[in-house]
Design brief:
The protein has three helices and no strands. By secondary structure, it is mainly α. It holds the Pfam family Phage_P2_GpE. This is GpE family phage tail protein.
């Protein structure tokens, strides 16, 4: 969740309402947008 918050600026309250599958998808989007390779 920290990845998503850092890249998109979302608060934990916003992310807490999302199902886990959506969080996983948004985390991948954040990774791609950040330009960091795993």
């Amino acid at each position: 969740m920290a990845d998503i918050a850092a890249v998109f600026g979302w608060s934990p309250a916003v992310m807490g309402d999302l199902p886990l599958s959506e969080l996983v998808a948004w985390r991948e989007r954040a990774r791609v947008r950040s330009g960091v390779d795993e």
